[in-house]
Amino acid sequence: MQVSGALFRRLQSLANNFVSKQPQNPALIGSEKPSRNSMSFSPDITQVPVKLTLQDVQTYRSSKFNPSELQGELTKTYEGKVRKNYFIRPEEGKILIISEASDRTSAFDIPNLIPQVPYKGKVLDTISKHWAARIEGWGYKTDLVKDHGLNFNPHAAITVREPLETLPIEFVVRRYLTGTTDTSLSSRYFKDGERDYGDFKLKDGLELHSRLDRTILTPTTKEKEDRNVNKAEAVDFILKKAKEDEQFNQALNKALSTLRITDENLKDLSLENPDHKKLLVTSLYEKIEKMVIDVFNRAEGELKGSAVLLIDTKFELGLDKDGEVCFMDELLTPDSSRYWSKQSLEEARKLNQAIVRQNQRFNIPATAKDLFSMLKFPSSVDKDLMRNIARAKPEEFSAWKAENQDIINQNKTKTAEKVYQPYKSQFFTDADVQKLANGYLHILKIITGKDLNLNKE
């Protein structure tokens, strides 16, 4: 039975009234020991340490990479939503990718939503390199090239990468039942009532934001509209790309030929036999699943003593010239991952339990979907900081999108040399950008233990 509009509003009012009567806790996101008696709204991002003033934001000039610094023949360039890649040939028979992380921010499938968040590119680049070093220390390979012998502006957000044959799947790893999009695990669980997700099942009675019994992989496609797939569908996508891309197919065959097969039934299989190849790709996928879950669990363990939790992340992987599986692109950054305040998560759980109790107390027949729309989310220390600013002003944001829809569509068109057209107005204020920039600097300090050298000259 659907809850009526009046009852729905009454339930919201009761829950909000309950929250408003709780003592407020002004603790920073970085606080380790919240008061046992406190219950409040999730800490706001304005409470993080203020390293950048409004004037710093308004006068900031990014330290961009100058292509004239390239040492070698430039073979091609490609610019995505956030990064620009320069493919160079420093010597015959060798190609390197010079990857520059920009300060741009995209969200809600809107490229260049904020043209410049000060130091964001350098923060993402530094965090990704931090995790790349950890991942390699755990025995896995990344696309990072350290001994390249090239020199760049030290303030520019530059990473030298090895070209890889990219797997056509995004490997999304999760440890909590949460999310805000229609395809998120929590939306499928609470709104759609799903319990069987193909490769795993979830039991009834779980709470929003609850920690799962184990870390899970929920792969998605890299299509125009990403969609969830199971293991069998992911394997089919890999085989489809192998049929369409001979270079990828060669790298895949090398990867398959070096697999350590322990199952007697999978030994002596032929790559020329489509059925055999599918079995081998399935085995490769299972190897990758173990890799990404292991890295996630280790990264989560590294943050155990910090003030934040690693909730989920998205990995991209590729195959090198020898067929070895490598982690690539950005690694466990606040743009590819969800990081939450530990204190904020506990507070959100308490608030949500109170909302459910109010619903039961007044016997209001709300559906799971109704309840889900009222539940509270913890404070993020990641890209959701920006999304939440827009979500807090839905009518204004909808009007801004309508006004700029033609430009949004134009900016979404992919070209090798992307030049983003400016929007008619900026939805985010300088004060919003200041909050975001300080948030990125704060999560950098939490993850790496180091502050960024701010180049304010």
Describe the protein:
This protein is of the alpha+beta class and 457 residues long. The chain has three domains: 1-28 and 340-374, no CATH class; 41-164 and 382-448, Phosphorylase Kinase, domain 1 (2-Layer Sandwich); 169-319, D-amino Acid Aminotransferase, Chain A, domain 1, CATH 3.30.470. Helices cover 38% and strands 17% of the residues. The chain has twelve helices and 14 strands. It has helices spanning 5-20, 54-59, 120-137, 185-191, 231-244, 246-257, 274-302, 342-361, 368-374, 384-391, 394-411, 430-448, and strands spanning 73-79, 83-91, 94-101, 105-107, 110-114, 141-142, 158-161, 165-166, 169-176, 211-217, 220-221, 308-319, 325-328, 337-341. Strands 6, 8, 9, 10, 11, 12, 13 and 14 form an eight-stranded mixed beta sheet that branches. α5 (231-244) crosses α6 (246-257). The longest helix has 29 residues, at 274-302. The radius of gyration is 23 Å and the shape is globular. It starts with a helix and ends in a 9-residue tail after the last helix. The relative contact order is 0.17. Residues 1-8 and 14-46 have low confidence and may be disordered.
Please outline what is shown here.
It is built from 12 helices and 14 strands. It is of the alpha+beta class and 457 residues long. The protein has 3 domains: 1-28 and 340-374, no CATH class; 41-164 and 382-448, 2-Layer Sandwich (Phosphorylase Kinase, domain 1), CATH 3.30.200.20; 169-319, ATP-grasp fold, B domain (D-amino Acid Aminotransferase, Chain A, domain 1, 2-Layer Sandwich), CATH 3.30.470.
